[in-house]
Amino acid sequence: MKREPPIAMETSPSEQEGQGWPKPVKVWDLPTRLFHWTLVVLVIVSFVTGNIGGNMMTYHMWSGYGILVLLLFRFAWGFAGGYQSRFGAFVRGPGAVIRYAVEFLKSNSKPYLGHNPLGGWSILAILSALLVQVGTGLFANDDIFTEGPLYPLVSKDFSDWLTDIHLLNRYILIGIVAIHLFAVFYHLFVKHENLIKPMITGIKQWHGPVKATIGSLWLAAVFAGLAGGAVFFLVGWTG
Known about the structure:
The protein is mainly alpha-helical. The chain has helices spanning 13-16, 30-52, 57-80, 87-90, 94-104, 117-137, 156-189, 196-201, 217-236, and strands at 23-26, 203-206. The longest helix has 34 residues, at 156-189. It is globular and about 60 Å long.
């Protein structure tokens, strides 16, 4: 039986020279993948329950709390997680983003092991929009029977203003997510690069220099616990 090539971890460019076949690289660690797909589910739940309203607003609020836990975790993991999950690995300056945007439509554009420069800023945009959404939701009200847990801390007028932002920002969020999905499927069908499978398996077929390290599961569990405790305290503080 043919032996499968080993999973590549972190090697130097010189170690990769002369290897024509791609190697399986563990690019996305388990905490990053769990974050990603849990966030997808909770965003869908939030959107559906928010549009239905009524008794579904209870689930809307709970999904919002879950998203806030995920965001707090992701911001911490962006500094201490696996290499490709760190902000420093995929957040690049305007020059790099513009150069990549110019090359993006070309068939021979440079591939990236993790997020490319445009994808990196897309991730930041999604995280920022979600933070605005859950942040305003904590103070929002629907003038019927649903109020955010921090509603008592602000005036009715200020809560109404934040509610308007909450309602408007959902369209901004939808637009950003739509662009993100377009880019993912553009890579899949036009550039023949599957970005979805590595986010499921954590492994990407890659040839060339590799810089991919895996974050600590224990540290991820600590961050998740702290994020959950912070949101629990925040939500229950006014209760």
